[in-house]
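Revision sheet: C-alpha cells.
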Amino acid sequence: MTGPGTSFVEGWAQDGSLQALRAAIERGGRLRHVIARRARLTTSDLVALEHLMSRPLGPAELARILDVSTAAATALVDRLAQRAHVRRRPHERDRRRTEVEITPDGREEVLSQLLPMFVALDRLDRSFTDAERAVVERYLRGVVAVFDEVEAEEPTGARG
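Predicted:
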C-alpha cells in the first residue's frame, strides 16, 4: 500500500537548492556535535551556552529550550557552573527567581570554537552581491518559517 507521503516523495524532483539545503542541515547537525566534543561539552551544554550568549535565562526557560526536564537542566547548569562557564544570580526584578548567565570564560569557550566557522561564513557572505544576499536571505527565512510551522504542528498518524 502506498500512502500520500510515499507518492509525494517518489514524484518529488529535488533540485540543486533542495539538495544543498538538505546537505547544509545534515552538516549543521553534525557540526554541533563536533564542536561540542572539541570543547569537551555535551551537545546540550553547547546549545545552552549558545542561548545564554544573547541573554540570561532561568533554569525552567533553559529546560523548555533544550526540551529536557527541569532536573536535567539543573544538572546541566551545575556542570557548566563547575567549569566556570556560567553563574547563577538572582533575577533582576524577582529576587525569588534565579537566572543563569554566561561568564566571560564561557563566552570565550563558545566563540573560540565557532570563530573559524564565523570567519569562513563571513568571507562566503561577502562574495555575494547585495541582490544575491537578498535572495539567499529570503530563501533561508522561508526555510525557518517552514521549520517553525512543522515544529508547531500536532503530530498526526504517529505509529508506535
